[in-house]
Design brief:
CATH class of the domain at 40-147: Mainly Beta
Number of helices: 6
Shape: elongated
CATH topology of the domain at 40-147: OB fold (Dihydrolipoamide Acetyltransferase, E2P)
CATH architecture of the domain at 40-147: Beta Barrel
Oligomer: single chain
Strand order of the largest sheet: 1-2-3-5-4
Order of helices and strands: HHEEEEEEHHHH
Structural class: alpha+beta
Distance between the termini: 105 Å
Radius of gyration: 27 Å
Length: about 200
């Protein structure tokens, strides 16, 4: 009986240690222009809203504070997966530096192993500073000096593609139908008159 208990204990111990050994293992990066060249979008922003993953990727909307690279709107959506080993959470009001690439014109897909980092007030608790070798403020200063800051695009209620995909109301449909019919009838009449 003791042997079975020992084997069971050893099995659980190995199982949980193997799972924990598959934890977050992102490659270490240094702050450089070469590292910045890997990304299409780099910005400093504040989390405005956040939805967690369900059956689709999570979404976080950022209010852009400083744009260092890319073209984005004042409020920009970043998509991400929650079940990845290095995933983190976003909370409204948090400030982040985001390094990412476009997924579509108006949103991006975040790779948790990018240099993206959260602002943590207490330097001693800032594990990003310990990992990256520079503070949040030093990183912002580097980005401003080497990449510059750019204007964000003005927000629109909807992107242009979305407006093209809206179905007309019944009234718009009827008016469009009657105008189209009148144009076709006029064309037929003119064709008969001039091309007999």
């Amino acid at each position: 009986m003791k042997i079975k208990a020992f084997i069971l204990f050893l099995s659980y111990f190995l199982f949980f240690n193997v799972n924990s050994s598959i934890a977050c293992t992102c490659p270490l990066t240094t702050l450089s222009l070469a590292e910045c060249d890997k990304y299409q979008i780099i910005f400093r922003g504040k989390v405005v809203s956040h939805t967690t993953c369900t059956d689709k990727p999570g979404e976080t909307v950022f209010q852009i504070l400083d744009l260092f690279k890319g073209k984005v709107h004042e409020k920009f959506k970043v998509l991400y997966h929650c079940n990845e080993p290095c995933s983190s959470t976003f909370n409204p009001g948090e400030e982040w530096i985001i390094y990412t690439n476009y997924k579509q014109v108006d949103n991006a897909r975040l790779d948790w192993c990018s240099r993206s980092r959260k602002f943590i007030k207490n330097f001693k608790e800032d594990y990003y500073a310990q990992t990256y070798g520079n503070s949040y403020d030093e990183e912002v200063a580097f980005l401003r000096k080497n990449l510059g800051t750019y204007k964000v695009m003005e927000d629109r209620e909807e992107n242009a593609a979305g407006k093209r995909n809206i179905l007309p109301s019944k009234t718009q449909f009827i008016v469009t139908l009657f105008i189209s019919m009148a144009v076709v009838i006029l064309f037929i009449q003119l064709f008969k008159k001039y091309f007999k």
